[in-house]
Amino acid sequence: MNFKIDKQTIEELNLTGKFRSGSVYAIFNKVKTNGGERLLDHMFSHPLEEVDAINQRSSIFRYFGEAAFSFPFDVQQLNQMREHIDSMSSKNQMLVFARTCIHKILAGLTRDERYRKLVQGLQATILVLHKCHQFIQAMRSDSPFTARVDTIREILSDKRIEKLRQVDIYKSLSIQTLSSYEHLLKGELHGQMEDVLNFIYEVDLFIAVSKVAKDRKFNYAEALPPAKNLMSAIDLRHPAIDNAIGNDLRMDGSSNVLFLTGANMAGKSTLMKSIGIACYLAHMGFPVAAKEYRFSVREGLYSSINVADNIGLGYSHFYAEVVRVKQAAEAAASGKRLLLMFDELFKGTNVKDAYDGTLAITESFADYTDCLFVVSTHIIEVGEALRRKDNIRFVFMPTIMEGSVPRYTYQLREGITEDRQGMLIIRNEGILEMMDA
């Protein structure tokens, strides 16, 4: 089974996108190799669903962070090795020898670069293998990465590779030596060379992500079995906001609905995005922007934060919201354990309908106790009507008035807000006076 997330949720949380401003992917994309970036792409596209797999990956990141490794490989040499072992070669050793001879003759007579690239490719491969051997010697024998290291150690202990590592790259290589190793590395040992390169790409990723965690003071989540139905965070923040204010929260089977109120600009949407991003990163085994994060594994994540109208389908903003809620209801009714988040339900219609719709939908969601829900609204009367539901927890983002100027603390509080500063902000901006002039 795969962790379920749709395109709208990915875009609302700004999870992916190498060049998207403020994307979560861009925060972690500090890798040095193309292979490391491909691995990062894969992890972002395939969150994990198994408790042990998540905790195992987190423990590897944590190990790399504690060891404070620096990436010891030269990227140009890695690219040359990659090109070298991927280039075509014959299974017949005599044909390889003959072709190597021809390339050397052509190099002397013309500007043919193939022989020089052959030599440089082998030299780069020797250097990479040598550095890889040195690197694994420095790794702990009891680390969570030990099984992977042992696989590479076994490859490098092959007598043919050991012999290759001892070749002096600064001395002229004979055609016999060059063709012999080309045949070996591109033929019989091609799979092993691929595994060594993949190992190096993994090392690149683990070093890069663990360094991001250290620099940004992110921490690693603890995955728990799904049946616990828990999500608990201390000092949870939005990872893309510098000096963001953190909040504590807890959701479980007895309080699986978080009902969030607060004035516009009080920070409700940012908090919801922080919750969603942390959930997604935690399922990847990645560090999250929190001091502590414990969660029961979910089967998917679903958000409705920035629903837009759809001119192509003829949808108004309100109808687009209705369609989105219907999709969420179908997902919840499927029996999957999900995290679902809704920001300002039905803001595309009148206040009375928005009140009725928000109340009815939230009450219905509360019955799906295997799912966790976050619902926000600025229609605070809905909260009072929902108090009869025992499994709804009421929290709000406060606004503090300093004279006629609102100040937002972004600190979560228990209860339902009583803030109503909409008209005050309009007056502060001088809109009414401007229109009367």
TrEMBL record:
Instruction: Identify the Gene3D superfamilies for this entry.
Output: 1.10.1420.10, P-loop containing nucleotide triphosphate hydrolases
**Organism lineage string:** Bacteria, Pseudomonadati, Bacteroidota, Chitinophagia, Chitinophagales
Describe the location of the DNA mismatch repair proteins mutS family domain by residue ranges.
255-433
Q: Which GO terms describe its biological process?
A: mismatch repair
List the Pfam families hit by this protein, alphabetically. Answer: MutS_III, MutS_V
Q: Which organism is it from?
A: Pseudobacter ginsenosidimutans
List, alphabetically, the SUPFAM superfamilies matched: DNA repair protein MutS, domain III (SSF48334), P-loop containing nucleoside triphosphate hydrolases (SSF52540)
The GO terms this record gives for MF are:
ATP binding; ATP-dependent DNA damage sensor activity; mismatched DNA binding
Keyword field contains Cell membrane = no
Q: Which UniProt keywords apply?
A: ATP-binding, DNA-binding, Nucleotide-binding
Which superkingdom does the taxonomy of this entry point to?
Answer: Bacteria
- Protein name from the UniProt record: MutS-like protein
Q: Name the InterPro entries for this protein.
A: DNA_mismatch_repair_MutS_C, DNA_mismatch_repair_MutS_core, DNA_mismatch_repair_MutS_sf, MutS, P-loop_NTPase
